[in-house]
Amino acid sequence: MSLDAIPIHLIPPGEPGLTGNAPPLLHELLEMVNRLLASGETAAIDLSALPLTPADLDWLRERLGEGEIAVTLLANGESTLAETGCPGIWWVTHHNEQGVVTSQFLEVAFVPELVKAHPDDVALGRDHLESMMADL
Amino acid sequence: MQGPLIDTLARRGVTRRTFLKYCATLASMMALPPSVGRAMAEAMAAAKRPSVIWLPFQECTGCTESITRSHSPTIEGMIFDMVSLDYQETLMAAAGHQAEEARHAAMKENHGKYLLIVDGSIPLGIDGAYSCIGGRSNLDILKEAAEGAAAIVAMGSCASFGGIPKANPNPTGAVSVSDIVKDKPIVNIPGCPPIPVVMTGVLAHYLTFGSLPELDAQGRPKAFFGETIHDRCYRRPFYDQGKFAKTFDDEGARQGWCLFELGCKGPVTHNACATVKWNGGTSWPVESGHGCIGCSEPDFWDGGGFYKALSVPADPLKIGAAAAVAGAAAGVAVSFANRAKKKAAKAAHETTTLDDLEK
Amino acid sequence: MNELQFLTWVRGPGLDIAVGIFLLGVLWRLIEIYSLGRKKDLAAPRHAAGASGLHTVFRRSLPPQGMLKRSPVSYIGGYIFHIGLAIVVFGFAPHILLIKNLTGLSWPALPSQFVDMVAVVTMAAMVVVLVDRINKPVKRFLSTFEDWFTWAVTFLPVLTGWMAVQHLLLPYTTMLALHILSVEILLVVLPFTKLFHAFTLFGSRWYNGRINARRGVPV
Known about the structure:
Order of helices and strands of chain C: HHHHHHHHHH
Helix content of chain C: over 70%
Strand content of chain A: 15-25%
Mean pLDDT of chain A: 84
Structural class of chain A: alpha+beta
Strand content of chain C: under 5%
Largest sheet of chain A: 5 strands, antiparallel
Helix content of chain A: 25-40%
Oligomer: heterotrimer
Distance between the termini of chain A: 77 Å
Number of strands of chain A: 5
Number of strands of chain C: 0
């Protein structure tokens, strides 16, 4: 008997639709961008902490669009920090090593925090540079 | 392996950005604002290594499994490595007298400073004879170890609230850690099993600030247990729209509608499953189509059944039929009494007064 | 007792006791009232158009001429909160689930936001009716302890239910338990107070209409 004889119908799970939770985020982003322009204050929205469906996230991504620059960070899995169509708003996605999204943020800043080098690390780099030059 | 955490991490090839990224995710999971992630990374990077003693009592080792098999053997595991785990029966190589000696040595050396982790409940029946290690009752060992602890972490529902051993009729007389230890700060991390990252989060907080995180009335970290499953559930909109799965295989279930009618205890369960998820963020019970059973709440085992909706009776109504019969009998009896009274009044030619009418 | 044990108690033994007393009381009082009987009316019945028990059942639901203007709060407020209560009690999904569990009957639920709004309107109407009762000297004079008490036991389930859904004041678990407890108090007192009108209302209207119809008077 072939497996086809068994009447099992696979029904793909229906994608939960839009919840209406995404549009208010645009207002919050507007407020954050205004603050960034006025005082340089950076801010972020934690997307993984909000009840958003994949459809909501797609809606947001579509509205915000794509910008000119995207930074890829390879650290404990890939992270992408992509500017959206609205400069100053960055879509930050952290993946773990299995490629699963662990957290997602919308960061409002001129440059995302994670991109900047830490002074301690810069100092280490200088030491390395110095020792390299001494060996020349 | 002394010195700040960031140096130890760096020796293992973990860069600052990797660590920052981890802390951002951890802060997100702890429902802390994104800015706290950076503060946490900075503080934790400089933290020192505390001594930890882990005592297993009436438990199933599920809690140990949960933490030691947390998704990637990377930073979470490393932070766990950061602590000096001086006694953990399941994980330690030493056994018998050697293990007991290790515990005593750690307790003596770090008196007043070590972190005590307990999983499992403590039986009080027949002088604690239901669960003994090395000939001593759990109660005895806990009291001894708690005395010199800086703080105690009750891992899992059994240590936090008594859990399954305490379920009705509680044959062993099981109690929670907080039922016994009253003079030490205790943080409860309930769940059956608890979410690994909650453990890491509490450890991170302890390493960062040297204290336990803010706790709710049940002694649970507010960051993870501050909101109910229901409030953070991605199926919540369907509850509000009145769309419910009626069985586990109907159209509603396929559409991913709310599982309230199938007994989901999400509305009364405080835990972080809805945001943190399980197995490296793969899924969690409600996402896989099963309602929450409320495992992080006290006495969840005796909550009236996992598949009964919260709004229906926890037990079948037993006295309803008997009460109806009794009511009917009372009604009939009273009506006979009334008729007899009327007859008597008529026979005696009683007159109706204003008082009678006002009755 | 922790909050979950409290909830489990009100969902279990508490509900059992409350429903038991409710059934006992309702059957007792219905049998007692309907078995009172009445002497046979030997006079020949008269007939008048529009005079019957059924007519009275409907007619008494409408305000008599001029009365709506004289006490609008009683009529409009009364209508709003009775209809509101019916919508909240019979339209909210968890309530329907309870009814289904107890009786096997079930029907589609209303969206919870709508029920939420109706609950607010119902509470507002009940408060207005209460204030009217306090402000009008005649109403206040006629009011007894029972009137205040029954208002409170009717109001509390709506208030606690709404607060539970809105996550106000107390944790949801505790509020839900208090909500169920308040409903149980309502169930227990209903058969023994004026709230029993839920059962006797149409019966007594029909009875009055019927007697007056025999006399040829439409009421």
